[in-house]
Amino acid sequence: MKDNNSRGGISFFGLMTIAFVVLKLTGYITWSWRWVLAPTWIPLALVLVCLLVLGVATYIKENQK
């Protein structure tokens, strides 16, 4: 029988997003929705930038030969 011990859960960024949305909806913060949802899109943007830099570096290295 398969023993499945993996645990799911919400990440730190997920908790920050929920907290910011609650604070925005209750009026405690007056940030734009772009910044309220920033914990959702900033990590994704960082990963995409890193992949882009890695791709450009690989392209430059391959074309120097």
Looking at this protein, list some descriptive labels.
65 residues, mainly alpha, 3 helices, 0% strand, flat
Explained architecture:
- The chain is mostly helical and 65 residues long.
- 69% of the residues lie in helices and 0% in strands.
- The chain is built from three helices and no strands.
- The model has no long low-confidence stretch (mean pLDDT 91).
Q: Could you spell the SSE succession in H and E letters? A: HHH
- The low-confidence parts are none
Oligomer: single chain
β-strand number? 0
- Shape, please? flat
Helix content: 55-70%
The number of helical segments is: 3
Kindly name the structural category. mainly alpha
Mean pLDDT: 91
Summarize the structure.
With 65 residues, the chain is mostly helical. It is 69% helix and 0% strand.
Which helices and strands occur, and which strands form pairs?
Blueprint: H1 12-26, H2 33-36, H3 38-63
